[in-house]
What does this fold into?
Amino acid sequence: MKEYDVFIIGSGMAGMTIANKCASKGLIVGITDELPYGGTCALRGCDPKKVIIGATEVREFAKRLKGVGIDTIPKVNWKDIMAFKQSFVDEMPPKIEKGYKKNGIDTFHSSAKFLSQNTLQLGNEKIKAKKIVIASGSKPRVLEFEGGHFAKSSTDFLNLEVLPKSLLFIGGGYIAFEFAHIAARCGADVTIVHRGNNPLENFEQDIVKHLVSATKELGVKLILNTEVTAIEKADNKYRVKGETAEKTEYFEAEAVFNSAGRPPAIFDFDLEKADIAFTKKGVSVNEYLQNTSNPIIYAAGDAADSEGLPLTPVAVLEGHTVASNIIKGNHKKISYPPMPTVVFTLPTMASVGYTESRARELDYNIRVNYKEVGAWFNAKRLNVAEYAYKTIIDEETQTVLGAHLIGPHTEETINLFAMAIKTKMKVHDIRTMIFSYPTLASDIPHML
It folds into this structure.
């Protein structure tokens, strides 16, 4: 049985960060992943999704400017864009594994199960480690209802050789909205079925309503307050059963996708055998990202029940924290800066800091600025219909507590708000800055 100083389950950004940092300090390190090395973001999430969105951005820009400088709206060539996307995906796993071997890290390609507090079964091999890190990310929620297995995953969507003529997404979160926008702009008939009253419920709802409007304008059918309870195959289509308080409805589509959330991918590891405390949100951790019941276990990224959002930069931050505590002993408490998050629809929707309701729950004395600004120059020059903001200001300190935006390139503008929140810049100082003009950032002073 081989023994390691550190062994990591999961080769996403958190696991990769921990493995390489520990190996650089001379520790004996091993890592395993039952999926290709690289993790969700690089192979099955943010990166390939953003590549595909790039083509739809061109189409959307042309559509908005048709008749005011553009004559023809281009079509997205699905086959070509998928091939372009795959060029990014294919190069990642071998590149990562080469880096591991260069750093002297042992690599495994199998699932892991705990045999005891410090021992793992990896396929036919057993290993022992002084420290074990669970950085296995998340995976699609299992649909327990009849025919749930007919629903494809987000990974399946990103690997479609041919885009179906009609698609239905179960769940009204960011995955459903992003993929619905992609598919609709590529000519598909799209439906989103969400069981709640509000889609994207973790975002500021005053801003979400603008995205809902833009989504409906795109032709996407948004069905709310409807619980999907069954899927059945009917000829070349799928029939989806949805139930409300008053009635039962049926929807048909060539393909059905499960976008009902992503729980942590930890529940097949036999955690109980290692005395590892966990919740439905992930491995239970303290301020050092160390497990609360088994001290040799650490967790990072989506697999950890921490205060961090399920975002790639957060996984990297947690990875650095875990590695530092393994190398030097627990000395570094996890500290989260403002965490901007984006829904990559068109228009994009971005958020950082507190929502209005959260700020009020924490008893801040706040000023709220909320406005639809489709008449502003930046919206008019781009011929954008949806442009709005909501900023939350602390009246006592005159600093920004939260910013919530929808409009062109808010994925970039939100980073400046994140910087302002982190550095506690005064509203007056932001207002008196000189921004290059005309840019989206030059609108920031007017949002405060």
Q: What stands out?
A: The two ends are 61 Å apart (CA to CA). The mean pLDDT is 97. The longest strand covers residues 125-134. The chain is about 30% helix and 25% strand.
